[in-house]
Amino acid sequence: MKAYTSIFWLMLVSAAYASSAQSGRTDDSFASVVLKTCKGCALDSYPTVIQFIKYDAGSFRELSIDYKAGGIPRLVVRNQAGEDRKVLDISKLSLLQIRAVMKKLGFEPSVPLEPKSYVEKRYKEDQLENSPNLQQPVENSLDL
């Protein structure tokens, strides 16, 4: 089921991009994108979105992040006039799929992105470092 959902989203983005490219109108061209989401515990439900925000987002000049918007993670694509043109739910996409959506929309990173395996490894390491459940070493209590 997950594969079908992912394919559906990529097809939807491809169709949206193709229709705007065919129109040739400058007011339909995409100038910027905003990743709207919440900050805190609800965002923790979307690890691939967190990975994208932490390790990829800074590489896209046209991307900004709005944590105050709340709700499920989504990309809001804007035209040159700053008007919202497309809203794409990215909550169920993998990191590679989010990257593919950005590319299909015409947004390229300013520097090469780290490989997915590296991002996933760093994310796991960060999670372990920041986990409140890590136990501190217990000192030997026999040395009283």
Characterize the structure shown:
This protein has 144 residues and is an alpha+beta fold. The protein has a single domain, classed as Sep15/SelM thioredoxin-like domain, active-site redox motif (Glutaredoxin, 3-Layer(aba) Sandwich), CATH 3.40.30. Helix content is 40%, strand content 16%. The protein contains 4 helices and 4 strands, in the order H-E-H-E-E-E-H-H. It has helices at 2-23, 47-56, 95-104, 116-130, and strands at 30-36, 63-66, 74-79, 84-89. Strand 3 (74-79) and strand 4 form a beta hairpin. Helix 1 packs parallel to helix 3 (95-104). The chain is globular, with a radius of gyration of 19 Å. Mean pLDDT is 82; it is low at 17-27.
| CATH class wording | Alpha Beta
Summarize model confidence as the mean pLDDT.
82
Number of helices: 4
The low-confidence runs, each spanning 5 or more residues with pLDDT under 50, are 17-27
CATH architecture: 3-Layer(aba) Sandwich
Classify the helix fraction into a percent range.
Answer: 25-40%
How many extended strands?
A: 4
Total domain count: 1
Main beta sheet = 4 strands, mixed
Globally, the shape reads globular
Radius of gyration: 19 Å
Q: N-to-C SSE series?
A: HEHEEEHH
Q: Look at the helices and sheets and give the structural class.
A: alpha+beta
Distance between the termini: 60 Å
Strand content: 15-25%
Spatial order of strands in the largest sheet: 2-1-3-4
If you consult CATH, what is the topology? Glutaredoxin
CATH superfamily: Sep15/SelM thioredoxin-like domain, active-site redox motif
